[in-house]
Every structure is written in C-alpha cells, then in structure tokens.
Design goal:
The two termini are about 30 Å apart. The chain has about 425 residues and is mainly alpha-helical. Helix 12 runs antiparallel to helix 13 and helix 12 runs antiparallel to helix 14. The chain has 16 helices and four strands. Helices cover about 70% and strands about 5% of the residues.
C-alpha cells in the first residue's frame, strides 16, 4: 500500500511543483509580499505618529479675564512646554465660534476655566476645567490626551503650593515609592526573549493555522475535485491501486505542498515582524534576544505535522463529496471561517486557558504554539494536542475511505 501511495504522492508533487504559476503563488509570493507589506505598514505608522506628535495646532482658552490668575499662568506655562500649539485667549462670547472651528477640524481644543477658580483654590475646594475636542480628529485627540496630562501636572503643582502655604512638608504626598532605588533591568524577571515571543505568540499561531488551511484549499480541492472534472480520477480508480493508497498518496502530497506554502509565509512574516514589531520594543537588541531552541523547534514540528494532516483531511473530505471544484470550494468555506474564528479566538486568550482547550483540536495546537513562543511550553501539552489532531484526522480519513469505496457518493450527479 505504501509503495503505491508513495508513487501517487510523487506524481501529485511533480504536478504541483513543476507548474511555475503554482510555485510562484504558493511559495515565492508570500515570501516577498509579506515583508514588503508589513515594512510599508510600519513605515506609514511611524510617519503618521511623527506627524501627529510634531503637528503645530491651535488651542482656545477661555476666559480672557483669567489671564492674571497665577493658576492660569501656571497652566499656560505647562501647555507651552508640553504641547506644540498656538494658544489663543478668547472671551466667553467667542466660545461657540471656537467650538465650530473644532468641529470643522480647523482648531484642536477649547479649554474653559471657571470664574471662581482662584476663590475655590483659596477655599481648598476643587474646581473643574472643561476641555472640548473633536474625537474624529487625530490631532485634536492627541492634544486632548496631552492636555489631560498637563492638568495632572497642574494639580501636582497646586498641591505643593497648598502644602507649602500650610507649612506641611511635600514629602507627605509620597509615603511609598516603587522601584526608585533599583535599576529597571533588575526588576523584569521575564525569560530572555520571552517578551518578544509573547508578541509573536499572539500573531503567528493563528496565521500558521490559517496559511496551512488556505494552502490545503488551494491544492487539495484540485487534487480530488479537479481530477473528477478532468476524468483522471476515474482512470486512477480502475487501475490495480488500493483506494487507501490513493487517499494516502494525495493526502501526503497536499500536506507537503501546504507545509511549503505555510513555511514560506511564516518566514516572510518573521522577516516582516523583525521590522514591524521592532517599533513596539525599546531596542532592536530585544528583538535579537528572541531565538527558539532546538527543543522548541522540535515541539513545533510535533504540533504542526498532525494539525496539517487534520486540516488537509477536512479539505479532502469536502473535495471527495463535492461534484466539482466550485461545489468543493463552497463546502470548504464554512470550515475555513470556523478555523479562522477558533484560531483568532484562542490566540487572543490570556496565559491561563480553560482545561477543555487543551483537548479541543486546532484550539489546543494554537494554545501550545503560543506557549512555545513565550518559552513556557510543556511536552505534555504538545503531545495532547498532537494526539487529538491525529485522532480527529484518523476519523476523517476513515470516512474519506468509505466515500472512495462508494462510487455513488464519489461520482454522484
């Protein structure tokens, strides 16, 4: 059986990898496109952030009559220091005009002070400053956040003034501090490279599963449904080749092709990630700390081979039942959406997941891969995920064999 399966697998692989267009779209394009795509996205994001930070905007402050207030002057000095904007002092009669300008994105902020601000401060009462902004404008939203920081700084300054007025030492405000007497590098006890691995652990597992499934769709549907349409499957069946050998040969060929495409996509993503994720970390040195050991690479292989067989089996059972490639694509699409939802949902979970997720196929593979990337994986979880994938794949292959033996289903009209 295995020699026949091997011959069929070689035939399928030769057909796939001698087609230049298939090789380009499955292997070359992801390897080139993904680094380019994410690098461009990273550059655009960097440029946009710099543009927002350096934008010279316009802020209105009301009322003009508060200009001599020491609180007002302190606030304006903080704003001058923290925000790159022109400050326009206006009277209360111009408030609506300023609001209209902000709505039209021609100005960024309107800040109003209460008339009794100095009186409230002297009476040790709180007073409220109103900040109007446009949430649909990136510049206005950025100025709003910076102004909130400025008001927090103003509050700290006013508290110090009050304490000094009452002859109370300012140290009374800070009965306890955190990590001021220790180096920041000494307090972070994460394993070397695990912080970068955490980011990769959210990004890569579901993308690997996704590419494995998409690659299986690209190749698997044509391998069975395509051969039905071309009439070559019927010719193959009348030869002295066992149905199990045909299924095994086709399945292994599709698994190999899916792996090649997924590997190309992941390598492309890893290259892109080193540019794209670099912006999320303080230095490129932290990126270079992320290296998977031989044991972790072996764990990935133990996980990915069974789940690839499972995903290919899902595609092939649909292709076996379908009359043609178009119908097969329609049958596979709901499964694709299900795999997509399961992969994204499980990769977004926290560090501790419910016990049942360790036994659910596909989900447990994503969870185990995530643990590998953050360097917290165990062989127990890896083997459970691999065995569950193989069990479900075995069930699907069993039903596929039954379908291959029933020509009423295989060649249904």
């Amino acid at each position: 059986m295995f020699s026949d399966a091997y011959i069929i697998m070689k035939k399928e692989l030769k057909r796939l990898f001698t087609d230049k267009r298939t090789v380009f779209f499955m292997v070359v394009l992801p390897l080139l496109m993904l680094p380019l795509l994410y690098t461009v996205m990273g550059k655009i994001s960097q440029s946009r952030s710099k543009d927002i930070r350096t934008y010279h905007g316009s802020i209105f402050i009301v009322p003009l009559e508060q200009k001599e207030s020491p609180i007002y002057q302190e606030f304006v000095s903080i704003i001058d220091e923290q925000i790159n904007a022109k400050i326009n002092e206006i009277s209360e009669s111009d408030i609506q005009f300023a609001k209209d300008l902000i709505t039209e994105k021609e100005a960024q902020l309107l800040i109003t002070f209460p008339d009794d601000m100095d009186f409230a401060f002297d009476a040790i009462q709180p007073f409220d400053i109103h900040i109007y902004y446009n949430g649909a404008s990136d510049y206005s939203s950025y100025f709003y956040r910076r102004t909130q920081d400025a008001i927090a700084s103003l509050a700290d300054s006013l508290i110090i003034v009050r304490l000094e007025t009452l002859n109370i030492p300012t140290e009374i405000l800070t009965p306890v501090t955190a990590n001021r007497t220790i180096e920041p590098t000494e307090v972070n006890l994460a394993k070397k490279g695990s912080e970068v691995g955490k980011a990769f652990g959210v990004l890569l597992p579901f993308i690997i599963i996704l590419y494995l499934f998409v690659s299986s769709m690209q190749v698997g549907i044509d391998t069975v449904s395509g051969e039905k349409e071309r009439g070559t499957l019927a010719i193959l069946l009348v030869n002295q080749v066992g149905r199990a050998s045909i299924i095994l040969g086709k399945l292994l060929a599709v698994v190999c092709a899916s792996f090649a495409s997924a590997l190309s996509s992941v390598v492309g993503l890893m290259i892109a990630g080193r540019y794209f994720l670099k912006d999320l970390f303080r230095s490129s040195a932290e990126m270079s700390d992320f290296v998977l050991g031989a044991g972790q690479i072996l764990q990935l292989a133990v996980l990915l081979i069974p789940v690839a067989i499972l995903l290919v089996s899902l595609v092939l059972i649909c292709a076996t039942y379908a009359r043609n490639s178009k119908e097969a694509a329609g049958l596979v699409m709901p499964l694709y959406m299900l795999v997509l939802i399961l992969s994204i949902g499980s990769s977004s979970m926290g560090e501790t997941v419910p016990v049942w997720m360790h036994y659910a196929p596909i989900i447990n593979t994503v969870v185990a891969m995530k643990s590998i990337f953050i360097k917290a994986s165990t062989w127990g979880d890896v083997f459970i995920a691999a065995i569950s994938s193989l069990i479900f794949a075995g069930i699907l292959i069993y039903f596929m064999l039954k379908m291959f033996k029933n020509e009423k289903i295989l060649f249904r009209i």
